């Protein structure tokens, strides 16, 4: 009987005649047999679980049935219902937090038909802000999920609460954001011209006060950014993005029809936020200080990104360069996910005109001086403190901007030439200002930037991405390095570059002090070795003299490899100039980075004694491999930079527009192949013994026979010498094989022309 009464109950029958009889019958049955009361309760729960899929639908209908009829008699019947009482209590709570209410007072049983009492509201009190936010979210859930249809009275009170003006506190910022999203989600709350005017006045107040709220409340993500973002979405007709924004702010999934936003779109785009107003206002919004992924919500960076994407700044001739530069300078880890997309779309707006009819409609790039300011002082020494005002994240983001700009500029050179857009390439200055000073491997690249930055470096600067260097870096920064640093004493820290220079000047007579200082330097980290780099490289020619112990040479090689992980480009230039023949050193002939990229074989035109000094020959081979890779990247970039030369003659070329480009590409490949083949030939000739070495070899061979016959096995020093020579020869062989393989891929016929002895 109980199961039948529970299962066959009608919808919303709690206060109907049948519902009262059913409830009374269940109560009497439970009194007749109290031991079954728990079973009856369990029966109700189990039936609810079985009908779980229908419960939500029934609840939605249950909420929706209330307030759908305007008949006072129906309202009078519902006054005693639980749902009506709850709605009445919610309305009382809502009216209680408004200082003065412009509304009808709560309907009592005796005065249902009383006329409304109208008055003017004022600001929301601080102690009521949190409760007001909770009430707004509750009504959003009831209306958006449960399907509650508000009465005119409830709608009027909700609108009064939403358009109230809270104090400038974090809770007040949250309340304004919730109110704004609720207006977007339930636009039916605004039904009369007076209500629409009230909403417009409130939105205008938001625009005026958002900067004050952000400065006083201390909240970085203010409602001003949300206003701008919604305005931009309306201008670009991205209604689905507005719906997602509303749902994420309210914290609940609400079904919002795009058609319901049509009136709000008209108000935003024509009355409050025209596109020109949005653009002009966006550049005045302060940047977010210490921007990182820890700062959630909708920030100015989201607004600027959307405006850049829609090309609003170029359309209305508003400069955004300064704002982007300030924001890049105000970043920290963990990296905010919107920073890289912002840089990419900014670069696109610099290089790609908004329209073909107006090729000058582009944004301005960041100036060279601004880039120099970020990296000022990174060359090491006392000036390192100058760069401390900018975080590592800022420096890496600017580096990403520089590399991305160079790559995009080269990729669009031909298109820009067709459009007759003249953009000055600052790539050479940027290389000197950034890559020459930034120790690429030393920087701690944050998550989210590593893969993007590595792709740019591997594509445009392959000589900085040699796998051998990465393996060496792991050895330098691993557990062994940590253990070595534990042995670091104050004596090692006190050695200055001047003392190192004095120790070098004592060679070859006294090498004990130099060996001691070099051993202490091996305990330092790569960054701490930077001040010693110039002294170490400038004295390498002293190591070519006879009588220098092999241990000193190997230690210098070890220190050079450590420095190579933090300052490869500058180290290579200093080393090449230091190992030049004495004649060139006397003439003070200095090679630059550009010279070595154009002609990488300069590396092999060093002092001939280097070829017979395995530790220094190892350094030379490393630089040769790097500069061969750099030369390829340099020539590829040069080919793209001068792509406009293919455009002009191709217009009247009988061979077709593609002929000049193919010819220049072939010339480039021929030059690269000639460089590789020349390097192979020089290395092979280096391996050939000279006349003096042949004579010494025969003498040494006879001497070794006598030594073996009298003393037995070779000494450890002699074995070490032979192992170093063999290791050096293997490196030469590996480099030759790599060069031949690259030549074969470029043109298999070229390899056949190489003469091997």
Secondary structure layout:
Layout: H1 2-7, H2 17-32, H3 37-50, H4 52-65, H5 72-78, H6 82-96, H7 129-144, H8 152-162, H9 170-185, H10 193-217, H11 223-235, H12 239-250, H13 262-272, H14 275-282, H15 300-309, H16 312-315, H17 321-329, H18 339-351, H19 368-375, H20 392-411, H21 413-418, H22 427-435, H23 450-460, H24 467-476, H25 479-486, H26 490-494, H27 497-505, H28 512-521, H29 526-529, H30 533-538, H31 550-564, H32 568-578, H33 582-587, H34 593-598, H35 614-641, H36 644-650, H37 659-687, H38 691-711, H39 716-746, H40 748-753
Summarize the structure in words.
The protein is mainly alpha-helical and 757 residues long. It has 40 helices and no strands. Helix 11 packs parallel to helix 15, helix 15 (300-309) packs parallel to helix 18 (339-351) and helix 35 (614-641) packs antiparallel against helix 37 (659-687). The chain is elongated.
Compose a concise summary of this entry.
The protein has 757 residues and is mostly helical. It contains 40 helices and no strands. One of its GO terms (cellular component) is integrator complex.
């Amino acid at each position: 009987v109980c199961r039948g009464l529970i299962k066959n109950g009608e919808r919303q029958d709690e206060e109907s005649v049948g519902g009262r009889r059913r409830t009374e019958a269940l109560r009497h049955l439970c009194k007749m047999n109290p031991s079954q009361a728990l079973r009856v309760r369990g029966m109700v729960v189990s039936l609810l679980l079985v009908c779980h899929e229908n419960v939500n639908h029934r609840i939605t209908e249950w909420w929706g049935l209330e307030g759908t009829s305007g008949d006072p008699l129906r309202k009078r019947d519902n006054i005693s219902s639980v749902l009506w009482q709850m709605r009445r209590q919610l309305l009382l709570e809502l009216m209680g937090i408004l200082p003065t209410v412009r509304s009808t007072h709560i309907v009592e049983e005796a005065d249902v038909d009383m006329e409304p009492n109208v008055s003017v509201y004022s600001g929301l009190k601080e102690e009521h802000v949190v409760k007001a936010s909770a009430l707004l979210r509750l009504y959003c859930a009831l209306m958006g999920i449960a399907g509650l249809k508000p009465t005119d009275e409830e709608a009027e009170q909700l609108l009064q609460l939403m358009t109230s003006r809270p104090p400038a506190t974090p809770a007040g910022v949250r309340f304004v954001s919730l109110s704004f999203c609720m207006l977007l989600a339930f636009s039916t709350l605004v039904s009369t011209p007076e209500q629409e005017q009230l909403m417009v006045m409130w939105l205008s107040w938001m625009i005026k006060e958002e900067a004050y709220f952000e400065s006083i409340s201390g909240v970085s993500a203010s409602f001003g950014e949300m206003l701008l973002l919604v305005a931009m979405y309306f201008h670009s007709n991205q209604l689905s993005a507005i719906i997602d924004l509303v749902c994420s702010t309210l914290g609940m999934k609400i079904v919002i029809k795009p058609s319901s936003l049509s009136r709000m779109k008209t108000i935003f785009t024509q009355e409050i936020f025209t596109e020109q107003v949005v653009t002009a206002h966006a550049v005045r919004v302060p940047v977010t200080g210490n921007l990182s992924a820890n700062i959630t919500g909708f920030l100015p960076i989201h607004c600027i990104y959307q405006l850049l994407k829609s090309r609003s700044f170029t359309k209305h001739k508003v400069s955004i360069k300064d704002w982007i530069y300030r924001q890049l300078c105000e970043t920290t880890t963990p990296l905010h996910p919107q920073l890289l997309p912002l840089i990419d779309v900014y670069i696109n707006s610099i290089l790609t005109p908004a329209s073909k009819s107006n090729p000058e409609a582009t944004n301005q790039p960041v100036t060279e001086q601004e880039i120099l300011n970020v990296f000022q002082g990174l060359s090491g020494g006392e000036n390192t403190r100058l760069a401390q005002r900018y975080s590592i994240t800022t420096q890496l983001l600017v580096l990403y901007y520089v590399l991305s700009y160079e790559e995009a500029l080269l990729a669009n050179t031909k298109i820009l030439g067709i459009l007759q857009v003249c953009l000055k390439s600052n790539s050479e200055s940027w290389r000197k200002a950034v890559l020459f000073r930034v120790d690429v491997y030393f920087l701690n690249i944050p998550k989210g930037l590593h893969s993007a930055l590595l792709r740019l470096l591997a594509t445009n600067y392959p000589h900085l991405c040699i796998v051998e260097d990465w393996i060496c870096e792991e050895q330098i920064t691993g557990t062994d390095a940590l253990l070595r640093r534990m042995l670091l004493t104050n004596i090692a820290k006190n050695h200055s570059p001047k003392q190192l220079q004095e120790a070098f000047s004592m060679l070859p007579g006294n090498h004990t002090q130099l060996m001691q200082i070099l051993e202490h330097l091996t305990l330092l980290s790569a960054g701490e070795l930077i001040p010693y780099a110039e002294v170490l490289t400038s004295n390498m020619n002293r190591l070519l003299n006879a009588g220098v112990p092999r241990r000193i040479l190997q230690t210098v090689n070890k220190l050079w490899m450590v420095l190579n992980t933090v300052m490869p480009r500058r180290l290579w230039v200093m080393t090449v100039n230091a190992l030049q023949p004495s004649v060139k050193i006397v003439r003070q002939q200095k090679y630059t980075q550009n010279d070595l990229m154009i002609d990488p074989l300069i590396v092999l035109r060093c002092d001939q004694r280097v070829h017979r000094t395995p530790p220094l020959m190892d350094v030379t081979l490393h630089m040769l491999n790097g500069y061969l890779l750099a030369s390829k990247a340099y020539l590829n970039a040069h080919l793209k930079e001068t792509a406009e030369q293919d455009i002009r003659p191709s217009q009247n070329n009988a061979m077709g527009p593609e002929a000049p480009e193919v010819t220049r590409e072939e010339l480039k490949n021929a030059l690269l192949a000639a460089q590789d083949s020349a390097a192979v030939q020089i290395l092979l000739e280096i391996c050939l013994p000279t006349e003096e070495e042949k004579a010494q070899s025969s003498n040494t061979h006879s001497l070794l026979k006598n030594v073996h016959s009298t003393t037995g096995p070779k000494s450890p020093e002699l074995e070490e010498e032979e192992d170093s020579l063999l290791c050096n020869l293997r490196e030469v062989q590996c480099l030759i094989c790599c060069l031949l393989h690259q030549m074969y891929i470029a043109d298999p016929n070229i390899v056949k022309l190489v003469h091997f002895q």
